[in-house]
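Work through this:
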Amino acid sequence: MTGHVVAIGGGAFWDPPGDPRLDAFILALAARERPRVCFVPTAGGDADPYVARFYRAMRAYDCRPADLVLFNRTIGDLAAFVAEQDVFWVGGGSTANLLAVWRRHGLDVLLRDAYEGGAVLCGISAGMNCWFESCTTDSFGLELAPLHDGLGLLAGSACPHYDGEPQRRPLYRRLVDEGALAPGWAAEDDVALHFRAGELVEAVTLREGAAAYRVEPGAESRIAPRLLE
């Protein structure tokens, strides 16, 4: 069995008053009722306010939330903890730092095993980038740059915030056109790409007019997302 990946381009749907539709979509993909949902805030430095926002958001659902912090790690048997979870929700921040810390703790391998066992992997911004082979990121400074050592659970490259930051679209298009990044997927804010077994199932969105894209050398194909109700 292979699980799901929900790659979210960006958005502020956890900000008050909150928008529950995307989380409801994600949790409905879990293999069992009342799923265990684990928030992984590594990319944001395990910031306490980010973790608190996750727990507030999860109050709306019949689920069992947990968090996995690695900078001040409190879980000894990481493999056993990961194996118990149904959904992994990865926050935004630094993609490069996320990957380095995960690999140091062996979490990259455990998440791959969880995915192959049917878990739902989702995340926003850096939490979108990490599942692909490569991406664009601001991890290395003020300017966006390519990153080539993602986890590779999904083939190709990724670009979040496609309409949210002015550098994103032109840089990603140029890098793909030049062959510096493999063809891939871009998502605007409030848009998520849902993959199952490595194949795109659909795009979903929280707002009218937003879109996702398949980007290849010399071509950009718009993917009209389904508006979540």
Observations:
- Residues 4-227 form a domain with the Rossmann fold fold (CATH 3.40.50.880).
